[in-house]
Amino acid sequence: MSPIIESAEHKALRSAVAALGQRYGREYLARVAREGGHPDELWADAAKLGYLGVNLPEAYGGGGSGIAELAIVLEELGAAGCPLLMMVVSPAICGTVIARFGTDDQKRTWLPGLADGSRTMAFGITEPDAGSNSHRITTTARRDGDDWILTGRKVFISGVDIADATLIVGRAEDARTGRLKPCLFIVPRDTPGFGRSVMDMELQAAEKQFELTLDEVRLPASALVGDEDAGLLQLFAGLNPERIMTAAFAIGMGRYALARAIEYAKTRQVWKEPIGAHQAVAHPLAQAHIELELARLMTQKAAALYDAGDDMGAGEAANMAKYAAGEACVRAVDQSVHTLGGNGLTREYGLASLITASRVARIAPVSREMILNFVSHQTLGLPKSY
Fold this sequence. Notes:
This protein is of the alpha/beta class.
């Protein structure tokens, strides 16, 4: 089935997840965030229904499907107002990397738990001085006998407090060239020397952001994921799903905001007609809907390429999808708040907080400018400026 026209199975998945999302909704997630808790009930219900591990291999308790299906789950939860950010990290990035490159022991240890939601894993790549430049990652891994010793810092790492382990991106010295290359390590939460502190964010979300310190963290050889010499390949195997899932997250958020604005525009009367009858109100909402639909198309294309094993094609499409979805989400939220006027800024209508949240899709996990760089160099063949 072409990704352009959704299969009956995908449509059924959408409606089933939407029904779950409606049982929880925006108020549930907002309350959990206000109280400093975690969306454990929604996570458990999504897990019980098989949604969290839909992309993971059946042999390890997953659904045996792909990122296309996992993206549908996240988008529909987002459209209901209760997206689960840890879905981006735990099953999509970490689950994918371990399923593709992990040892048999790592797969047995982690995949069943990631699939049924009983275990979660965070992902640590961003650093204070590296940002989008993964070549400047300073977290180093050096050998000490059979062990590895990790030293470094990470920032903006989601959900480390609830994660059983964090998949850390470090750099190890290549014995042949002497150059540093990326390597991935599973670091259990209670490993000595592995510290975390909450970052003070304006953005109110159930998932907290952490700064991590790795102070001479000693890990066994079995903590290394995959082949020491295939680090970059393994890293991008996780980053493409991350971009696709971020796009799904953004599209869901945009759809949620737009639905609230449409509802309001149909009933709010200032003169004789509902405000939605006026083109100055209706047209921007129609435009926002079109942009979200276009972003979803590119997200479906990216997921289809990734699930078909085309990592290069998926890389380009995933970046484009994330860019399109981020822009569409910000504009949809902005227009939705504007449609409600003063009501758009009240807690009762629950849209104002999305102004901050929608910016995340433009910034993380890679900025729109870096995506434009990628497309300039990789697609258009233009020379690099850096």
